[in-house]
Amino acid sequence: MSERRGLLIILSSPSGAGKSTLARKLRDWDASLQFSISATTRKPRVGETDAKDYYFVSEDDFRKYVNEGEMLEHARVFNNYYGSPKGPVQKAIDNGRDVLFDVDWQGAQQISNSSLKQHVLSIFILPPSIRELRRRLETRGQDDQDTIALRMEKSWDEISHWDGYDYVLVNDDLVDTEARLKAIITAERLRLSQQPKLVDHVRALQAEFEETK
Amino acid sequence: MSERRGLLIILSSPSGAGKSTLARKLRDWDASLQFSISATTRKPRVGETDAKDYYFVSEDDFRKYVNEGEMLEHARVFNNYYGSPKGPVQKAIDNGRDVLFDVDWQGAQQISNSSLKQHVLSIFILPPSIRELRRRLETRGQDDQDTIALRMEKSWDEISHWDGYDYVLVNDDLVDTEARLKAIITAERLRLSQQPKLVDHVRALQAEFEETK
């Protein structure tokens, strides 16, 4: 067993609140952080690699994983299923590596109620204003007004579930928010439940105490 | 109501593990941190000031406070009672100030089960070794060998309750431990339960969203 147990770090936010940028900054800070790879029943697109972009699985296999409790969360999007397989996450945290999840509030809720809930750390990033959120969506320049209106509806749905998370940050300054995220992760790694090896240290203290008294 | 709610920060450790030094460092870091002042039924000594060193109270009053749930924790030591009154702590946290408690594991347990438990952050400091703990007690030079043996017994009793805390740190390097403590406090201030004003921010976002859609 590793010195410390890894965390399941859930980062949720409406799109445009800075989540992807922050996730990259965390990865730059600690290269051992890994992103959770989703399983999906949709077909791979050109250039996508199995076990890197997604785990591509059949619908039968996907259902079997869900029934066996091997999915930490899952959802159906149009005609395809998406989910977070437990196996690789369990392996990572046993090896002391944290796993980052980019999921919406429904995924966050499912992971927070999963069999690994003891090791979950969930963080919600709020935008400073709706105007700022819309501005960021518009400056991406990818979408027409109808699509942006739809995205804004989706963003509001996401924001309205802000209070189901352990920590909530308002991203009004990227540098501040990054520092806060790092403090949260640094702290959570020091929780009793994340340090399975501490019991050995205390046993050594006890032995030493018995010897010398 | 203050922007954020204060925390009840419990710092426990055997004596000699560096707790007092660390408490001072935290106070230097954030002058708004206040130390909890105990109530006691013992008589004031020369130079002690009421409401600064202790709240000096009668035994009748002390019992009344306990019965009315106005003590977050209390204990009898020889013929005197000691305890942490809730009133000043409640006032501090409502004003967004954190309160630091220097209590043993029994006090920590009582505070962690008190009516303010939602805002409690408990940290245990372990020594790197028993040898180091003994060395620190001996270099204080205040005590004879029998007293040191007694203190070591008391220290072991304290260490044996290490696993009842939220966070556990091994103080093998004072600079590291100080940085970790600061990260824990910085993080815990960002918990949903510590940010009562965030609901106003989300209401403002909602109003803005409704207006602009």
UniProtKB/TrEMBL annotation, chains A, B:
<dbReference type="InterPro" id="IPR020590">
    <property type="entry name" value="Guanylate_kinase_CS"/>
</dbReference>
<dbReference type="GO" id="GO:0005829">
    <property type="term" value="C:cytosol"/>
</dbReference>
<comment type="function">
    <text>Essential for recycling GMP and indirectly, cGMP.</text>
</comment>
<dbReference type="GO" id="GO:0004385">
    <property type="term" value="F:GMP kinase activity"/>
</dbReference>
<dbReference type="InterPro" id="IPR008145">
    <property type="entry name" value="GK/Ca_channel_bsu"/>
</dbReference>
<keyword id="KW-0067">ATP-binding</keyword>
<keyword id="KW-0547">Nucleotide-binding</keyword>
<dbReference type="InterPro" id="IPR008144">
    <property type="entry name" value="Guanylate_kin-like_dom"/>
</dbReference>
<keyword id="KW-0808">Transferase</keyword>
<dbReference type="GO" id="GO:0005524">
    <property type="term" value="F:ATP binding"/>
</dbReference>
<dbReference type="Pfam" id="PF00625">
    <property type="entry name" value="Guanylate_kin"/>
</dbReference>
<dbReference type="InterPro" id="IPR027417">
    <property type="entry name" value="P-loop_NTPase"/>
</dbReference>
<dbReference type="InterPro" id="IPR017665">
    <property type="entry name" value="Guanylate_kinase"/>
</dbReference>
<comment type="similarity">
    <text>Belongs to the guanylate kinase family.</text>
</comment>
<keyword id="KW-0963">Cytoplasm</keyword>
<keyword id="KW-0418">Kinase</keyword>
<feature type="domain" description="Guanylate kinase-like">
    <location>
        <begin position="6"/>
        <end position="186"/>
    </location>
</feature>
<protein>
    <recommendedName>
        <fullName>Guanylate kinase</fullName>
        <ecNumber>2.7.4.8</ecNumber>
    </recommendedName>
</protein>
